[in-house]
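Record minuted for completeness.

…
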Amino acid sequence: MDKCAKWSLVLGALAALATIPAGGICLSAASSTAYCLLGGMVILQIATITLGILGTRSMFRGAKEKSIGGILLASLSILVFEPMAISGIAESPARAKLAEIIQLARPACTGVGISVAAEYSPGEGIHPAIPIVSEGERQPSYYFFPEKWYPTSIDNLELIVCIGEESEFLEEHCSYMSGYAERFGYEVEAIIVEAHSGESIATKKFQSSASPCPETISPGEHKVIRASHVIDNKKMFQDWLEDFVGPQ
């Protein structure tokens, strides 16, 4: 019974640690991958709780506390992971459809219009749009745009946000008595393109800024402080696009 308690705590900790990474994969992967992860996590959670229940019967000192700890960790994992996995599986067809539309619309970022796409007419309502990032760059998640902004097919796509290559730049060089620190930011240019014609209608540069230089550093240290990637700040893009695409 003491071994059951120990293993319950170990497996519970493993389930808790795997919850966010596995949930993140489920939110972006194909449904088959999400189903596999869901099955694996459920088996791990059930094993943890079963061992925990058996461990509570142990007379060894501390066994009950370990068992309860394992059960609580598994329960926390269930509360967080299962909703993420179910949401990811439910949205998998929409993600696959969006990926297909992006591939069909990619030529528009080079000025080639998509004849089957809808024409853009500024005005009230939602003008369906998609983000297209340069090949080899970090791809935005499915949640980069509000769901209602996405087109249901290539036929009703009006706008494409072409996001160029991200470049790094030195924001600040901070000198100390011995050593120095450098702050690096990221910059990227985004162009709004009309899908049907391939014509650009707006351009903007976006930047991310690194945290300030620390007050002190270790003697002789060369500290590098980097900003988060621009593509991670979806709100910045959405606020700019709202005037073209429609309300969030």
In short: The beta strands are 129-133, 159-163, 167-175, 179-194, 200-208, 221-226. The chain has two domains: 2-91, 111-245. DSSP finds four helices and six strands in the chain. The domain at 111-245 is CATH 3.30.160 (Double Stranded RNA Binding Domain).
